[in-house]
Design goal:
With 536 residues, the protein is mainly beta. The chain has helices at residues 2-18, 108-114, 260-264; strands at residues 21-24, 30-36, 54-66, 69-76, 82-90, 98-101, 119-125, 132-139, 148-151, 154-157, 165-168, 181-188, 192-218, 223-236, 242-251, 319-326, 328-332, 335-339, 344-346, 350-370, 389-398, 412-418, 425-432, 440-457, 471-479, 485-493, 497-500, 507-509, 512-519, 523-533. It contains three helices and 30 strands. Strand 7 (119-125) and strand 8 form a beta hairpin. It is elongated. The N and C termini lie far apart (90 Å).
Length: 536
């Protein structure tokens, strides 16, 4: 008797789950999208428009009317990159019993599978007369290689007779939707209408910062003034749009342990592949088709917007620019949150640019940099120009209000322009890492065509022979400019070496010792110092 009771209860539980009423939640009345950039993207790496590796936190406010008892709520139109295990629904009196993510979208194959054993209408067209005949038929196979219908003539494969055939379905099978669906089971003793919030993580988003800097002044004292305009470029690779959403972007590196890409598993829209009789005979098989490849499609005509507002030439995607509003910056722990002040639409398979920084006058200076001098080679005796290398031209400033900044600068790229009689000309494109407020900002512009250096040790003796003695070093610098320049000489690593440089202040940056000197206009100048190993 106990065994029979247990068996009866075992069948009762699934039956109760199947008897739950299915309720569709309303379309979202409020939406919020917070985009996190790819946590593994390094400075210099660009946003991958074909396979974005960032994610987003999406919150949707919907209304649902529940009957008394247990019911299943369907949320239609969630992001296809939804990480279902991360979903949380709040606002329900009975909480959540079970969560499910529908794996199939409405598609030809899903229609056939959902109509198995039910009637459809098949229509055949006579290619000679154009006359059409229709009849009712029953689907007898699944969509796994062929479609067989049972008609008044018996069992017939579809589209294998050589006649044009079409199949019409009377209704969409229960549970199928053209949009991704997330469902939960809940319980409410009395029933009623509730406002609920669905929050979840979704894969297939990313963003980066794009900067446009225009130099406005560069004088003999190496002073520089520039205007800096910055944009958030946000990417949604999902097939769903988010209308009038509160849009935010988070800057900074967060620790992500889960494989969101693997957990997302977008729902499938399976095609119907029909396999018919082979051409010829079953012994000989089907001949291989040999068709010439089709001609490539004509190239798209692209109209470019200004540099800060256009997509790159290699992309076919259009960037929607929102320049009438500027995203505000907020602290989010050790991260930075950029909030768009007005609701915007995050379009499916689209890019959007939102301005977040506009600084009309950033103060900086131009500094030339001679890279680290190695003591392992002696200085040549002659002044052969082949032994000189161009130094790096840098734009140096400080991220504070005194220098016209004072805002966090997230990772991205910068287009640097310089005014000319023909208009602003592109000088270089630079890569930026994350810069916090108060940090020194040093950007490599490019190699200088006017300032060259030759740097090595004096004398032929090898460094190993000096021991505890000081080893003489020299940097020979040529400056072809009509004004003096500031040169930063990178002396070498701080660890393992001592340095002496007469009448110059030794400084350290990123573990490298350096000095800054003035190089007169139209001159060749030698700068001497000494170094010795501390490993003795």
């Amino acid at each position: 008797m106990v065994a029979l009771l247990t068996l009866a209860l075992g069948f009762a539980a699934p039956a109760a789950a199947q008897d739950r009423a299915t309720v569709d939640a309303s379309a979202p009345t409020q939406q919020a999208v917070t985009i996190y950039r790819d946590p593994n993207r390094a400075p210099g790496d660009r946003l991958d428009r074909d396979n974005p590796q960032g994610f987003a936190m999406i919150s949707e406010v919907r209304t649902v009317t529940l009957p008394p008892g247990e019911s299943r709520i369907r949320f239609t139109g969630v992001a296809e990159g939804m990480v279902a295990v991360s979903a949380i629904v709040t606002g329900l009196p009975g909480g959540t019993i079970e969560k499910n993510r529908n794996a199939d979208l409405l598609s030809p194959a899903a229609l056939v599978d959902g109509t198995l054993g039910n009637r459809v209408r098949i229509t055949r067209t006579n290619p000679g007369t154009g006359a059409q005949t229709s009849e009712s038929a029953i689907v007898r196979t699944r969509a796994d290689g062929g479609l067989v219908l049972q008609t008044s003539e018996g069992f017939e494969p579809v589209r294998c007779s050589g006649l044009p055939e079409s199949v019409a379905f009377e209704r969409v099978p229960a549970g199928l939707s053209s949009e991704p669906v997330f469902s939960i089971d809940t319980r409410d003793a009395s029933g009623g209408t509730y406002t609920v919030t669905l929050s979840y993580l979704a894969w297939g988003f990313d963003w980066e910062a794009n900067y446009v800097a225009t130099l406005s002044e560069a004088g003999a004292r190496d002073n520089a003034r520039l205007r800096l305009v910055s944009w958030l470029t946000l990417l949604n690779d999902n097939g769903q749009s988010f209308e009038n959403a509160d849009l935010m972007a988070v800057a900074g590196t967060i620790n992500v342990e889960s494989d969101y890409e693997g957990l997302a598993e977008p729902p499938r829209a399976r095609p119907l592949r029909l396999t018919c009789y082979p051409i010829g005979s079953t012994a000989r098989g089907s001949p291989e088709a040999s068709f010439n490849p089709p001609a490539p499609p004509p190239a798209r005509m692209v109209m470019y917007a200004p540099v800060a507002m256009r997509a790159r030439a290699e992309s076919d995607e259009e960037i929607v620019v929102t320049a009438s509003m500027i995203a505000s910056e907020e602290d989010l722990g050790d991260l930075k949150l950029y909030r768009v002040p007005e609701p915007v639409t995050v379009s499916a398979k689209g890019l959007k640019q939102v301005a977040f920084l506009d600084r009309p006058e950033v103060k900086g200076r131009i500094v030339y940099r001679a890279d680290q001098c190695a003591p392992w080679t002696p200085l040549p005796d002659n002044n052969d120009q082949a032994d000189f290398t161009p130094v790096m031209l840098m734009l140096v400033t400080k991220n504070d209000e005194a220098h016209g900044l004072g805002a966090a600068l997230p990772l991205g790229n910068m287009a640097l322009f310089e005014p000319s009689p023909a208009g602003d000309l592109l000088v270089n494109e630079l890569d930026l890492r994350d810069y916090a407020v108060g940090q020194d900002v040093e950007l490599d512009i490019g190699r200088s065509p006017e300032v060259f250096t030759q740097c090595a040790r004096l004398g032929a003796a090898e460094p190993d022979t000096y021991g505890a003695r000081w080893m003489p070093m020299r940097a020979r610098v040529t400056n072809a400019n009509l004004h003096s320049v500031t040169l930063r000489i990178m002396l070498g690593e701080e660890a393992g070496w001592d340095y002496r440089f007469a009448r110059q202040r030794l400084r350290t940056k990123n573990g490298v010792r350096y000095v800054e000197v003035q190089v007169p206009a139209n001159s060749t100048t030698d700068f001497d110092w000494q170094m010795r190993s501390t490993l003795r």
